[in-house]
Amino acid sequence: MSLHLLFKQLKIKQIAMLMLVMLITFACEPVDYGEVPEVPSFERSYDLNLPSNIDLLTVNGSIYDESVGFKGIIVFRVKQDGAHDDFVAYETACPHDCLSKGGKINWERWMLLSECETCHSQFLLMYGGNGWPIDGLQPTNLPLKRYNTYFDGRYVIVKH
Q: Are the CB atoms for 125 and 76 separated by under 8 Å?
């Protein structure tokens, strides 16, 4: 076999291998395993005297607000000490695949767990779960993103 023919066969194999690598790389749909993207700063207050926020009067009560955050937030009452840290606010974008079309956790009143509609990771919210996935078998090992909360006795304020 001539040297010229050998080089030609090697080039064909290299091109075929390069095309295979490109096909594998670009054919798969990207999955984001990083953090939820930053959102513009916001400050939102929830008046506990309003009927729409009545669930926040009780420990483990929560409300959903889709107007702030990346895909909305859940405001959750974790205790009832009358202190500034009685409440937490969680982003509803799943930290596993927040950039996908779904990638959002489901919210229901008085929920113990919240599940991502896309990857089905489950996050514990009640009883001090702090938005962490419930066990190591979930597609993610990242907790839900939290926003700062303040409580002045009447208003729950969520800031970012």
A: yes
Sign of the alpha-carbon dihedral angle for 83, 59, 72, 33? positive
93-102 pLDDT, tens digit each: 988 877 777 7
Any idea what DSSP says for residue 38?
A: P
Torsion sign over Cα 15, 17, 23, 25: negative
Cβ proximity of 80 and 59 under 8 Å: yes
Give the tens place of pLDDT for each residue, 111-149: 778 888 888 888 888 766 688 888 766 788 888 899 999
